[in-house]
């Protein structure tokens, strides 16, 4: 059988927009920890550092769906060029505020500026895949579909979330505390500028789609997917924070990165497998099954008492991540009108980010009071809640999905 991923990258224009998107969204796993490392080094306060990082993330979460709507209406090229430059400049200004020891309060409005100019490139790249595979000048290669493209992007996301924190930590500790933030800004700007020039693969702008403040959230089923993704973010945050606490309890704090990399590796392996298959089952059934498997896979983690066992079991737990996220994005593609694709993708991406932020805070409190086991039980609970949401809301999917929409 031919390699579907090689065939996918043979689609005209795909290699360039994939590379630009990968480079540009490296910063999504770098900025948060980069801000913490920079601000804590300058102020000596992790509390201030965490607050500045949280403000950046919150500003991004609030504005991202609105930027997605703007991109749908004006086109990626017209939005990405100024947005990429503004984000790079904002992060450079944040570094200046910290390094030049300006009043602490100045860090917060600049962090807001950085957050609102942060582009949701993951949503834009997925929108391009939909455009080239469904509306391109030639049909996609045999055996290649949206699930292949979404699988590929899911694997790239996992690579980003594993390598980004390592890169920013290396730069901040060996070059300069500001190195990670500056690198993140440079990568975002470069990715945006290159992606903005790729007009042949850009989805055409459209003024269509339902109007109103709610946007895509007025579409039946989108709220269900977004809420499930938010709870999945709680699972990811619960596992990440709890694993850090677990390795400290075991006396091996340096192994936290190894265990979390194993979690991500499981997702990568499953994502590649998922994308190489041709699926006939409905998207909503696959999404529900993935959520259930994620909850079941995370549940045993709270019972483990040694790190070698955790290393193996957390890999198995990670196998459910990509096969859940991929049909989730597929559902959004089917539920949302074509003129609102980028906004729809941005909404679910933002939901995960919000879930991670809220989940990290909740897990931290549980870990303080009950150790890593309490945090891992929270992750299991979030997974079960996500499954329940998808199960109860499945009828909303059926309102918009037809029997031939099983891609």
TrEMBL record:
Major facilitator superfamily (MFS) profile domain span: 221-407
Q: Primary place of residence? A: membrane
Among the GO molecular function terms of this UniProt record, one is: transmembrane transporter activity
Membrane-topology descriptor = Multi-pass membrane protein
Q: Which GO terms describe its cellular component?
A: plasma membrane
- TM region(s), chain numbering: 16-40, 46-67, 79-101, 178-197, 209-235, 255-275, 287-304, 310-332, 344-362, 374-393
Q: Which UniProt keywords apply?
A: Membrane, Transmembrane, Transmembrane helix
Where does the record say this protein resides? Cell membrane
The protein's matches in Pfam families, at most eight in alphabetical order, are given as: MFS_1
PROSITE patterns noted in UniProt: MFS
Q: Which domain of life is it from?
A: Bacteria
Name of this protein? Putative MFS family arabinose efflux permease
This chain's source organism reads Thermomonospora umbrina
């Amino acid at each position: 059988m031919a390699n579907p991923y090689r065939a996918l990258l043979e689609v005209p224009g795909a290699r360039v927009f994939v590379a630009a998107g990968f480079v540009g969204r490296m910063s999504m796993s770098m900025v948060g920890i980069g801000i913490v490392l920079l601000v804590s080094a300058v102020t000596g306060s992790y509390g201030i550092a965490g607050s500045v990082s949280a403000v950046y993330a919150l500003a991004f979460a609030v504005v991202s769906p609105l930027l997605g709507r703007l991109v749908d209406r004006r086109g990626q090229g017209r939005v990405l060029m100024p947005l990429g430059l503004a984000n790079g400049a904002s992060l450079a200004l944040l570094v200046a505020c910290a390094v030049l020891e300006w009043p602490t309060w100045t860090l917060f409005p600049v962090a807001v500026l950085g957050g609102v100019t942060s582009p949701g490139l993951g949503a834009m790249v997925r929108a391009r895949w939909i455009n080239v595979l469904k509306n391109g000048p030639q049909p996609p290669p045999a055996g290649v579909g949206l699930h292949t493209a979404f699988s590929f992007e899911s694997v790239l996301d996992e690579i980003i979330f594993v390598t980004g924190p390592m890169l920013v930590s290396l730069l901040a500790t060996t070059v300069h505390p500001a190195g990670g933030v500056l690198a993140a800004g440079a990568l975002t700007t470069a990715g945006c500028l290159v992606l903005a020039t790729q007009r042949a693969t850009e989805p055409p702008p459209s003024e269509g789609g339902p109007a109103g403040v709610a946007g895509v959230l007025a579409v039946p089923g989108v709220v269900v997917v977004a809420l499930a993704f938010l709870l999945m973010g709680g699972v990811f945050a619960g596992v990440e924070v709890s694993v850090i606490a677990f390795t400290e309890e075991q006396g091996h704090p340096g192994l936290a990165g190894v265990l979390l990399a194993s979690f991500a590796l499981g997702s990568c392996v499953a994502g590649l497998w998922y994308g190489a298959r041709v699926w006939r089952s409905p998207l909503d059934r696959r999404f529900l099954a993935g959520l259930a498997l994620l909850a079941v896979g995370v549940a045993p983690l709270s019972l483990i008492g040694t790190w070698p066992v955790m290393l193996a079991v957390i890999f198995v737990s990670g196998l459910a991540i990509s096969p859940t996220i991929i049909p989730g994005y597929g559902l959004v593609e089917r539920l949302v009108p074509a003129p609102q694709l980028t906004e729809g993708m941005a909404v679910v991406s933002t939901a995960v980010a919000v879930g991670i932020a809220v989940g990290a805070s909740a897990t931290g409190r549980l870990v303080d009071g009950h150790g890593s086991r309490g945090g891992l039980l929270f992750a299991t609970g979030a997974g079960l809640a996500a499954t329940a949401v998808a199960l109860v809301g499945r009828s909303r999917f059926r309102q918009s999905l037809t029997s031939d929409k099983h891609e």
